[in-house]
Structure to design on (190 residues):
């Protein structure tokens, strides 16, 4: 069986990655599987263990990283995040196109390891809109909001390492564009 694609989607906090990706996740034609990351951050209301993340202690995270169990990892606003390698490999071997929703440092590591990774960066229509969206979430203290905003500014500088840049001005349109990009790359492989 042909190995599935490795798709990386990044974009600053609050850009709406999750909402856009939800629109295409269950499209049977795209054969997508979401890679569930490991994180040391607290679970947010509405999140579920094993669905949004595997929530682990710092010790567990560092042990997994030491043991080479992570495809990539990064520290983001004081917490660790990483992609479990085994699961990604298993799904790709089954022909699934595996979607990683990760930040920019992790993407850099993926590009170094997986030459043909399909990388997509989602940008907001403008930075004011992004700040509004980050504040709108309002589940975090001001200090963290400020850190996320500063991080978003820095992340926007990394867009050139991505193969595609998609603006999330309109959720349906952004989802459709990403869908077309994935279909194009699936066809190229077969
Ligand atoms: P959040 O705390 O908002 O869920 O995620 C913070 C950032 O970490 C987001 O940009 C998200 O894409 C990124 N992220 C989530 N999982 C991973 C991962 O496994 N590796 C890396 N490098 N970043 C991740």
């Amino acid at each position: 069986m042909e190995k599935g694609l490795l798709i990386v989607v990044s974009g600053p906090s609050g850009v709406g990655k999750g909402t856009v990706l939800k629109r295409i996740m269950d499209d049977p034609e795209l054969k997508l599987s979401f890679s569930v990351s490991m994180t040391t951050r607290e679970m947010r209301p509405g999140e579920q263990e094993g669905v949004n993340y595997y929530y682990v202690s710092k010790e567990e995270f560092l042990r997994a990283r030491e043991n080479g169990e992570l495809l990539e990892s990064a520290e983001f606003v004081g917490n660790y995040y990483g992609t479990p390698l085994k699961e990604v490999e298993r799904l790709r071997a089954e022909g699934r196109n595996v979607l990683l929703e990760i930040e920019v440092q992790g993407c850099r590591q993926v590009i170094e390891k997986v030459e043909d990774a399909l990388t997509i960066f989602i940008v907001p229509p403008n930075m004011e809109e992004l700040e509004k969206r980050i504040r709108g979430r309002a589940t975090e203290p001001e200090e963290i909001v400020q850190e996320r905003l500063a991080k978003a500014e820095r992340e926007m500088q990394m867009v050139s390492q991505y193969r595609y840049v998609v603006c999330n001005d309109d959720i349906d349109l952004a989802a459709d564009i990403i869908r077309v990009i994935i279909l194009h790359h699936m066809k190229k492989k077969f």
Q: What stands out?
A: Residues 171-189 form the longest helix (19 residues). The chain has a mean pLDDT of 94.
